Amino acid sequence: MSLAIRNLAPKEVWNMFADLNAVPRPSKKEERVIQFMVDFGKSLNLETFVDTVGNVIIKKPATKGFENRKTVVMQSHLDMVHQKNAETIFDFEIEGIKMLVEGDWVTADGTTLGADNGLGVASIMAVLASIEIEHPNLEALFTIDEETGMTGAKGLEGGILEGEILLNLDTEEDDEIGMGCAGGVDITANRTYREEQSTDSATGFTISVKGLNGGHSGMDIIKGLGNANKIMNRILFDGFTNFGLRISEINGGSLRNAIPRESFAIISVDKIAADAFLLETNILIDHIKEEFSNIENNLVIAIEKTPLPKKVMEIGVQEGLTKSIYAALNGVYRMTPDIADLVETSNNIARVVVKNGKIEIGCLTRSSSETNKMDLANSLKSAFELSGFNVELSADYPGWQPNVNSAILDIVANLYEKLHGEKAIVAACHAGLECGLLGQHYPEIDMVSFGPTIRGAHSPDERASISSTQKFWAFLIQILKNIPSK
């Protein structure tokens, strides 16, 4: 497996990626990968240091003849999203990613691959290690915690970097050049509830929603994919309204930036209503599966009898919970009026946990408009507060406003057309790149984003195109050769 990856072209990139993927690197637990990068930089005798928040900076002098070109910052993030299929036995804390080659794709065995943003990191590492690639003075910036708060980019101090141009390697379509992105804010709703003893007249059931595609909660939100938390709530609401269903536990979704693929609930229904509940709920399940039949072919919704749970949620809080999740928007809120087919504002109801007298609901709201971001955030906040939740807004970060006069954008776009005989797609994206925050610390820096084709980011279906990585690598080398003079 590892040998197959290491023999792929370009070997210098895939070998670095294999080394990187052997190091556990979950968001907020990046100590091992930080040390890995420090050791890497020092092994090349390059200036290497870690800033106050944990970002790693490695500087490499220009190759001969490129000393008078503008200094370039090459930037990618070290952390990766940890997602796995329910049946996959894997410990992200101690295991390296198990990679596979399937045709033109590199994928992982039941987990996320980490190509987001590991291929960007590996490419920068390959440039730093090369003695053949021509380039100006380089500053490699490896940020931490991009996936769960962008605290690395937020904590980066001004004055550390001298670069005039920043190449962000975190775009996931190889024919796209990024010039802007959405900002975001986390919305967390919490409340407690009183647990009541289940009655002997009830019977227990488990409900499972699984097999959904999931995916990136920004880039994939426009697809209208199924959200396991919304589907589960629809079933619970119907059962509660018509048959007095009582909720004991819910465990739905995981990370805020991943569209939830699975949700599981433990519930009870009075024995006298159980048969009618099963009949109507299975009809509802058939309707839901029909609604998603063209985009969620593997959706499985199952109800099974289980031992009666000992305790259930008090009925008033349960009513507020199911109604507030029903009322809370999930998906696209507004399309960008100035750019065709680009989502401006959206929300992902990412996490719903009910257990032991506590409820927590986690959302990620994204927007390229700060005012509309807060408009939707306030709408969601209101929906939950009306049901007695305490709501906190956190991890707020700005979008990256497009610069139509960007010199590096013109250079990169023209170079793409020259190399490939067709124009690149120059666009903003509905994802949370770090460029907006980096631009706050370095307002004069000229930025552009690009990268190899990656599919299914933030899900166990994540895969990276081998041919696209070859294309991206050749493009990156040419960009470094064409950086303008100071």
Keywords:
486 residues; alpha+beta; Aminopeptidase; Alpha-Beta Plaits; 2 domains; 6-stranded mixed sheet; 31% helix
In brief, what are we looking at here?
The protein contains twelve helices and 23 strands.
How does this structure look, described?
The chain has 486 residues and is of the alpha+beta class. The protein folds into 2 domains: 264 residues, Zn peptidases (Aminopeptidase), CATH 3.40.630.10; 213 residues, 2-Layer Sandwich (Alpha-Beta Plaits), CATH 3.30.70. Helices cover 31% and strands 28% of the residues. Strands 9, 11, 12, 13, 14, 16, 17, 18 and 19 form a 9-stranded antiparallel beta sheet that branches. β16 and β17 form a beta hairpin. The longest helix is centred in the middle third of the chain and has 21 residues. The radius of gyration is 24 Å and the shape is elongated. The two termini are 45 Å apart.
Instruction: Tell me the quaternary state.
Output: single chain
Mean pLDDT over all positions: 96
Q: Could you name the CATH homologous superfamily of the largest domain?
A: Zn peptidases
Q: Roughly how many Å apart are the termini?
A: 45 Å
| CATH T-level topology of the largest domain | Aminopeptidase
**Biggest pleated sheet:** 9 strands, antiparallel
* Computed Rg: 24 Å
| Number of DSSP-assigned strands | 23
By helix and strand content, what is the structural category? alpha+beta
How many individual domains?
2
Low-pLDDT runs of 5+ residues are: none
Please count the helical segments: 12
Report the CATH architecture of the largest domain. Answer: 3-Layer(aba) Sandwich
Protein name: Cytosol non-specific dipeptidase
GO molecular function, one term: metallodipeptidase activity
Cofactor: Zn(2+); Co(2+)
Pfam families: M20_dimer, Peptidase_M20
